[in-house]
Amino acid sequence: MRTPPRIAVLSRNGLMGIGLKSLLEKIIPAAEVDLFDGFEAFAAADPDRYFHCFAAADTVIGHNLFFRERLHKTILLTDGTPQPALSGFHGLNVRQSEEGIVRDILRLHQHAHREGYRGAAEPEASPASEPLSPREIEVLRLVVQGLLNKQIADRLRIALTTVISHRRNIMQKLGLRSVSALTIYAVTKGYVDANRI
Q1: Helix (H) or strand (E) holding 133
Q2: Can you tell me the distance from the alpha carbon of 73 to that of 121, in angstroms, rounded to the nearest whole number?
Q3: Could you read off the pLDDT of 76-98 as tens digits, one per residue?
Q4: What is the CA radius of gyration of the chain?
Q5: Within a 10 A sphere around the Cβ of 180, how many other Cβ atoms?
Q6: Is the pLDDT of residue 185 over 50?
Q7: Taking the CB of residue 135, how many other CB atoms lie within 10 A of it?
Q8: β-strand 6-10 against 32-36: which pairing, if any?
Q9: CATH number belonging to domain 6-95
Q10: How far apart are CA 74 and CA 88, in angstroms?
Q11: Does the 134-196 domain belong in CATH 3.40.50.720?
Q12: Are 6 and 164 in contact (CB under 8 A)?
């Protein structure tokens, strides 16, 4: 049995850390995610056992040598402002919408694992979920790409009410309630490439 990948989140902002931990657990359900409020607690927890480490900029600056030696596994949590002193690190702008954060995490994860998501655990859908029809998969792809219901109707040459009905059916079948959850599902199932959302 393979050991599940471990991910560390280092953030002094408890609410942000908890939110990111929750998103990571949804996006990469096979991973174990640990939250640390400071570098000292992280360092005491055998940091080299973590596959990825999401760390706040001030933590990375304060322990630059440590993180530079682990550049390939460190993801810098930023506010979107370029930081020349931290060039070379993968970054995640935490001051964007949930959909944006999910999209960027999926891209980072896909970049780190060139083989894609075929072997990854899938997000949980309702136990009695039915498979999606080919048309529902088409609608799901367009929803995840950010198209509005009217745009989807125009693209697929179907009625707006039909699009709304397909979206409702997709959410019911999968037991998912947000565009972020649908995005995670679509990427992990291989319906869309994370770089196309």
Answers
A1: none
A2: 21
A3: 998 888 778 788 898 999 989 88
A4: 19
A5: 20
A6: yes
A7: 14
A8: parallel
A9: 3.40.50.2300
A10: 10
A11: no
A12: no
Q: Spell out where the chain has E strands.
A: 6-10, 32-36, 52-56, 74-78, 90-93
Q: Measure the CA angle with vertex 32, ends 53 and 58; round to 5°.
A: 25
Angle between helices 134-144 and 179-188 (to 10 degrees): 120
Average per-residue pLDDT for the chain: 84
Q: Which two tokens stand for residue 7?
A: 């991910």
Q: Which residue has the higher pLDDT, 181 or 164?
A: 164
pLDDT at 3 over 60: yes
Give the chain's length: 197
Q: Three-state SS string across 54-97, please?
A: EEEHHHHHHCHHHHHCCHHHEEEEECCCCCHHHCCCEEEECCCC
Report d(CA 88, CA 6) in Å as an integer: 22
CB atoms within 10 A of CB 100: 16
131: pLDDT confidence band, cut at 50, 70 and 90?
confident
Strand, coil or helix: what is 52? strand
Residue type, 192: V
- What pTM was estimated for this model as a whole? 0.64
Could you tell me the residue ranges of all domains in the chain?
Answer: 6-95, 134-196
The 10s digit of each residue's pLDDT in 143-156 is 988 899 999 999 99
